[in-house]
Amino acid sequence: MAHIKFLDETMRDGQQSLWGMKMQAGMALPVTPIIDQTGYETISLAGSSIHEVLIRKCQEDPWASLDMLVESMPETPIRAGCRSNGSVTFGFTPDALMDLWVERLCVHGVRSFWLYDVLFNIEKMHRLARIAKGHGCKVAGTMLFTLSPVHTDEYYADKADKLSALPDVDSLLLYDTGGVLDRDRISKLVPAIVAKSRGKPIEMHANNMLGQSAKSYMDAIEFGVTVLHTAVRPMANGPSIPSIEIMTRNVEMMGHTHNIDVSKLKPVADHFERVGKAAGFLVNQHFEYDVTALRHQIPGGMMGTLRTQLKEQAMEEKLPEVLAEVAKVRRELGYPGMATPFAQLVGTLAVLNIVTGKRYSVIPDEVIQYAAGFYGDPVAPIDENVMDQIMSMPRAKELVANPPEQPDVAELRRRHGTGEDDDELILRALVPASDIEQMRKSGPPARDYPMLSSPELEQVSRLMKIAKTPLVQLRSEQFDLTMRL
After folding, report:
1. 0.85 exceeded by pTM
2. Strands (E), 55-158
3. Burial per residue of 100-122, b for 16 or more beta-carbon CB atoms within 10 angstroms, e otherwise
C-alpha cells in the first residue's frame, strides 16, 4: 500500500478549465484558510495567463490578488506554472523576462513550480529551475503527454532521465492534457518513467476529457505515482481534473493512506458552487467517453477557443470538420504536443484551413517560427509539402531572417519605462498599457464576492422562492426594496 499526496488545482486548472481564468481573489478568499488546513501537499495558484485575464477581463491587479491569496494560506506551499520560453504570448518571451517572472513570483510567496517545454528544451527548463531553487522552491519537471507514433514510452523515459538528472528538479510531473491515458499505456509508461526517476516522486495531472482520468489515477498509483492533482467537485471533471472527493474515497477503498481532512471539503465545494452559479461560470461538469478526443487531443480550454473562433465566423456547425482537420494538421506538423502554445497554433491553423476553404493559405507567424525551428526541433519531421507551403509564404523570409531577440533586463526596463519596478515591468510586458490603466481605475481587489456577501440579498432569494403573492418588499436601514413577480 502507498501513501498518496494530493495537490490542489481548484484555483488554477479548475478555474482555468471551467471559468476561463476569471477567478478573482474575492471569489476564493472566504474559503482559502480552509483549503490551507485541508492537508494538501501543495496548492496550485498562479500562471502568466491568469495574470493577463485578471487585468484585461476582470480589471483586477494580479499582484495584489496573488498577495492576498498567498497571505491567506501560510501553511501550504503555493505553486505556479511556467512555460520555458513564453509567458502570455504564443510566441516567445525573452529569457531575461522569463527569469524575472520566476524571481517576482518567488518574491510574492510562490514556493513551488511546475516547469515545462512542449519540445523539451531541457536547458531552458533547467535555467528557470535554478532560479526557483535559489529561492528555496520545489520544482516539478513536467512531461506533457500526448498520443502519437513518436511519443513512445522510450521517448518519455529519456525525458524523465534528463529531467531527474537535474539537481534542481525535485519531482517529475506526468501531465495528460487530453485525459487519454488508459491502463494499458500506464502499465508500460509509468514504470518506464519510474525506472529513470532516480527515486524522485512522480506526480500525475490528467484533465478528465474522456471521463476516465479518475480510473487512470488509480492505475497510476499501482505502478508508482504518489502525487495526484485534484480539485473540489464543483471545479473538477469535464475539461478539469478529477475531484478530491472521489479520489480520497478511491484511495481509501484500495487501502492507501493520505493526509486530507475530508471534513473540510464540503464547505469549500459549497462555496465554489455558489460563486460559480452566481457568476454564470461552469460548475459540476461531466464528460462522456468520446473517441474523437483521442484523435484531436485538444485540451479542454482550447475547445472553448475553437467554438468562439467558429462562432465569430458564423460557422459553428463546422466544429466536427475542424476537429478532423486538427488531427490532420497535427500529423503534418510533426505531432507537436497539444499544450500551450502548440494546441492553440494547431487549432487556429485548422480553423483557418476550414474557414478559408484552402489549406495553408493563411499561416500565423508562430507556425512559421515553429517550422523554422525557433521553438526547438519538432518531435517528427514536418510533412515536406506542408513545409514547402509554409516557407513559401511572403512572411517566412522576413521571420527566418529575424529570430526572436534577447534583450536584457536593463533594456526591457528602458523600453517599458518602468525603472526599478519589476512587478510593473512584468505587467507592461504582458498586456497593453491601456488595459493596465483601466485596471488601476477599478481600485484594489475585493476581499469577497459581492453577489454572495450580502445577507439582504440572501434573504431576498429565500423570499422569492416561498412568495405566494405577486409582491415582495424588503426594508432595512440601508435600503427599501420592492419586487413585483
Report:
1. yes
2. 78-83, 112-116, 138-145
3. bbbbbbbebbbbbbbbbbbbbbb
